[in-house]
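Known limitations

Structure tokens in this collection are predictions and should be treated as such. Users comparing against experimental data should check residue numbering before alignment. To illustrate the layout, the record for Cullin family profile domain-containing protein is reproduced below. The input appears on top and the generated tokens appear beneath it.
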Amino acid sequence: MTDRKPIELAEGWSFMEKGIQKLIRLLEGEPEDQFNAEQYMHLYTTIYNMCTQKPPHDYSEQLYGKYREAFNKYINDKVLPSLREHRDEVLLKELYQRWGNHKLMVRWLSRFFNYLDRYYVLRHSLPPLKDVGLLCFKELVYLETKKRTKDAVLLLIEKEREGELVDRALVKNILGIFIELGMATMDCYEKDFEEFLLSETSAFYRRKASEWIEQDSCPDYMLKAEECLRLEEERVENYLHVSTKQKLLKEVEAELLSNYETRLLTKEHSGCAALLKDDKTDDLARMYRLFQRIPKGLDPVADIFKDHVDSEGMKLVKEVTEAVELAKEKQGRAGPSRDTGSSHEQQYVRAVIDLHDKYLQYVSTCFCNSSLFHKSLKEAFENFVNKSVAGSTSAELMASFCDNLLKKGGSEKLSDEAIEETLEKVVKLLAYVSDKDMFAEFYRKKLSRRLLQDKSASDDHERSLLSRLKQQCGAQFTSKMEGMVTDLQLAKEKQQHFDDWLKEKGKKLSIELSVTVLTTGFWPTYKSIEVALPREMVEGVEVYRQYYDSDSKHRKLTWIYTLGTAVVRGNFQSRAIEMQMNTLQAALCMLLNDMDELTYAEVQERLRLPDDDLQRLLHSLVCAKYKIIKKEPESRTISKTDKFSFNHEFTDRLRRIKIPLPPLDEKKKVMEDVDKDRRYAIDAAIVRIMKSRKVLQHQTLVMEVIQQLQRMFKPDLKLIKKRIEDLIQREYLERDKDNPTLFKYL
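Generated tokens:
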């Protein structure tokens, strides 16, 4: 082996050239046998020997150069001429075939010259043989054909966009060449193809959008835009590189959506407002999907949604106001109606609930529960729900609506589940009402009436609503109401205890007496009238007072006769009738047991009632549906000169009747109570803030007061200013001598 004659460069390369020519003939499809193992080993061994010979016969450097020359010669002789004679899709097919052949040639030659790769290339830090082969293709073929190749690929993509079928596999393969020739980078793909693709895409969709915006409705345009975006995503999956996806979609979104958003959303008869009006939920969902793709694209949609909901709400307010005014005219009434439980106003609350359900459903389904659309819905409802409806506030109407749901004989005939569901919806609506304290006061009034007159249909529903209100508005909001419900339970136990006490003491009353003891702080304030009761009632009151004093020390009873009820038996000529009436009505009727006729002055003297209360009382028994008492002269009004007597001729088909006392106008009283409570709340908030901060600017103090109280009501700025002045007078605060807008806590 040591005596082997060295292989000269010319001799060795001549042998290698024969092998390379055989490989080229195979690649070109010319008749030629495949390499057998012996031929392959002979070629490999030749290179090995020429690289391992002792200097000056080590031809590693020369062979490395010859390797590159072999590729360059093949490309110049065979590849470039064949590519120069083709265009468009044929060029792409030829290029892909030539690229496949070239990679095959690189694989075979790098095997023949493998010894170079293992030693010479590593020792001299040269590019590996595989990379040299690819670089030859890049420098000679790619640089010459890249423009024509790029144009041909873009032409195919445009054809596909216009609906033609194209060879997607071919496009993918050609783009694979761009990627591979980047040599582990995306430079070739991005600079020589992607930049042009994005530019062409932008121009293509700019043309399409300008046509569609003129001829299509908003829904049709959105369908086309959505389909284009879907097809572009499909294009990326089929043959473009994944890194192109976001850039490509951004161009499409800019041309189809961003540039025409305003025109699209405000299109007459088919824009966003029209879709909302016509309940086109599928189109609205599509609009959301499309415009969420572009920066701040949903803001205009949310604004239109907000305006639409607000408009629908204001329409309800207007309809109900007009209906109530019309009803007043028909009844010949003037002035604002106090009947907040009327059917129109009940229907208004029901309509607002339905409206909220409808658009909440839109937010959850069409707008994917987006916080932006929840905010728009909230702002729209806050706007119209706080408007006055036929002279009443929404807080008052909601309280009346709940009362109608919860009382016996209400107009809402619903199942237990439906009532629970409706109550939950009312509480959700309450979140939009700024005057929650007013709702609380009206609701408390109506709750007290239900509880005291035994009109509550279900304790479970009452407690359920209080629980929901507590969760929504806090424990302080419902503490008094919960106290009222508890009072009624305790009162029943107290009554049982009283009955046992009577038996124990051996006392027997001439009338049946049931007393409900209430805690003053929980219940609304009631007018306490000192009235001269009949002796039968006086006896009962005195006995109960004895019992209460013995059972509860240091507590004072105040009797509210206006809330009491009595069952009185009327012995009329035709038959006896049991009459359920107010305690004061019963006291008036029993006066006529002893006297056949009484004047207005005599009645007033015996009952010791003020004129307003007495006239209301007499009217309920003389001029209303049940005329238990007759008067002279006959008329529809009560006069101080009238005389009153028992109406023996009165009769009714029922054996038991209920005679109501005309209700007082509670609205004014509630408003006064709310105003008073607000003054206390503002005072407390100011003192609380100043106590912790010690010194504060006027503007900052006002903002902090509003922030603290806005959960319950929206404080009036003038009222806050007035309360600050009042607290200064009462020496809780003082103004700074040098700066009048600065306050100090004393």
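For this record: The beta strands are 565-571, 576-582, 597-599, 629-632, 643-646, 656-658, 695-697, 733-735, 742-745. The longest strand covers residues 565-571. Please report discrepancies through the issue tracker.
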